[in-house]
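Form 12-C: Joint structure prediction
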Amino acid sequence: MIDVSSRPGGAIMPGGRLTTRRGVLQAAAAGLAALALPAALRAQEWRRVQALRERIGGAAVSTGGLSIELPLVAEDGSSVPVSIKSDAAAGIRSVELFAPRNPTAEVASFEFGPEIGPLNIATRIRLSESQTVIALARSHDGRLIVAEREVRVTTSGCIAPAAPADGSTDMQVRVRMPKNWKAGAPGEVLTMINHPMTTGLAQDGGGATPPQRIIDAFEATLDGRPLIKAVYHRSLAANPYLRFDVTPRQGGEMRFQWKEDTGRVAEHQARVSLA
Amino acid sequence: MSHFELVLALGALIGVVFGACGQLTGFCLHRGLREYWSGGSGYKLQAFALALATALLGTQLLAGAGLVDLSRSLYMAPAFSWLLLPLGGLMFGYGMALANGCGARALVLLGQGNLRSFVVLICLGIAAHMTLTGVAAPLRALLAGLTPVTLDAGVAPSGVFRSVVVWAAAAGLAWFAFRRRPLRDGLPDLAGGAIIGILVAAGWLATGWLGADDFEPVPVASLTFVAPIGDTIQYAMIATGVSLRFGVAVVLGVLAGALVAALLRGEWRLQGFESPRQMSRYMAGGALMGAGGALALGCSIGQGLTGLSTLAYSSMVAALAIMAGARLAYARSRRFIADAET
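Section 2 - Result
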């Protein structure tokens, strides 16, 4: 959380002493004021992350219009829910998600078609330790927006052993979407594929370290028009889950495709008809 | 009400009934075993046997009807550590004897004002989390990786054979429970046992059926009291950052149920330790139960009733080890400790 004591003026007011009642009250008031600072001024963790600095270069970055939600405390680091929303007027073209203290900082990246908006997506990620999770978005008009959120992890996502070998249900997919779509109104689509997302880092129960085998790409289209193109890394949680809002312009066939890094593919399709 | 809230509400209700039952009848595996080994005249072990019989029948009927997918539970994993599972069971059983009752019993006793149990629960919960996710977790993971055993299947084969095993085991347990005469004296104990067995099945139904969802399923579980006691302590400290879970709802329900039952019956009484020696014995007992229960994936209830109700081989190993640990402590107490502090 916020370390008030390290903030200039946060602990003791000039001339005030913590030993007097008034001094304590003043210090407390200053502490509260520090807590009330706009989130934009406090949230600066992303500036320290190499991967983000490389992507941003010298470009201007704003922090409004994008929000990232995670639980304050993650009790199971192997599957932490994260959702990203935006009300930016221009719409969001892409989002990259980072967990800087994971073995691989990149978690996932998404590209969106114009029918995804207002942006509202959710997935589940792995976190190896407490850290600040960061989302970097590009709007359709080329602006860069950063949002970040600090998460305390009580159970490392790296302590769970690699999943056992039984892969009988691997690559089975599930999709849930509204039965009745309304023109101009967003509908919620939930997708999931059974997959262990083997990182190549964790030992299995038998002491061996199985090599990386993950779902590394996901794509959804509506009558050929791209909705979402996602690239996943090993920090995405097992059984990759993605929820997103779609505001379809026209009905049609919604197609979903998941790709494993071995080249295996799973597909699903469903009919969208606007009321 | 979302399916999460429904599961929590049912968990709390199950806990309340468990707590009241435990307060009314003194349901306790440890006391049952001691009575049995010392040739006493109680019905506590009979009550536990009947609880196991009803838990087994109820759970297998739910699974047979396709309502609950037990294969998604912790107990059915085909791989476990041949070292840590029995070792944890022995530690739990020994600790249970030192602390004069298991974690679930300590919750009931705390509900009726027994502050010794408060100390036991704190030690148990912290030791459990130290072993599961804390400083001892890397060592646990290392040892588990060095001593793996993987079965072809985690449970007895399905179909007719499973049904025969279930009915035979339930009949045998019921025979053991009802054999002791005069039966009338044991009715409250046996009724309490039967209800607690039904609660185990109800817990499976809550998490496995009400909590089922294609995208956000509640973990399939039922009554168990090692990790959930640690979770409850943690929840008390960081509730704004985490969401309530089934196990924590059960623990809070047990406390509430035992408290209400004790108040209504005029049995609420503050109790504390009589000597530092007694206190250290209870603390060691709590810590052994916490660490042991974490290694054995459950306690006398979690493996002894809930785990066995799935017919998992690993639960049979753990439950036997828990009884062996209690037996070890019993034999030692006969030799060394004048049996005064009960």
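Section 3 - Comments
Chain A touches chain B at residues 71-73, 75, 152, 154-156, 159, 161, 164, 166, 174, 176, 190, 192, 203, 205-207, 241, 243 (CB under 8 Å). Confidence is low (pLDDT under 50) at residues 1-16 of chain A.
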